[in-house]
Amino acid sequence: SSQKKRRARAAINAVRKAVKKENKAINLATKLLLLEAEFLALDKKKNNNNNNKKTKPKVDSEAIRNAYDKAIIAASRAGLRQDAALGNLRVGAYLIREDPHWALHYITRSINLFKDWGAFGVAAHWEGKYPAFIDVSSRLKITSTDFLGRKRHNTVRTYRDINEALSIPSDSSLAKPPPHNRERDACREVTHFKNNSNILSITGLDPCFEQQSG
Questions:
Q1: Which residues contact 154 (CB under 8 A, 6 or more apart)?
Q2: What's the CA gap between 177 and 173, in Å, rounded?
Q3: Which burial class, exposed, middle or buried, applies to 111 when counting CB atoms under 10 A from its CB (0-12, 13-18, 19+)?
């Protein structure tokens, strides 16, 4: 609905302002990219449900997938495996009907990332939700080396890339990398669900997490 879109846009604008204002807001920056991808997916769904055949869709599926990929890449470069996992999960769920092959790729990678992060309960939940998409023999092997290694390597470039993706001036506080700080409480699945529910459900875009927030 138009009301849901207004709420979503207001939430995205609020997060964008926080990213520009807050120092070392790398966590918010990656989540902002994910929210923007979710907004594009919502806009595409609205156009698909529109009965007016003369209405041309504003975005296509490839643009939406690229938006999700941008969020996933930013999260992986920053070493935020949980956000990379969430991004893969969301784009995979979006592509289930449109492109099952890519849906399998993203959902499988998401589950492996949740396991690599230590959230085995979360991974098991999504394995149960998408059993038809899980082929154990062909699962991707993604380890912490892919993500934490990138976090240590060329951090200034990471922040510059995210600044460009978010159209933030180069003199922003994001241009300065924060001190190295590796997340250690990786197995708090409940906290993970609650945090991501707060971020995504505020826009009305992510009902699948709301039932897990209790």
A1: none
A2: 8
A3: buried
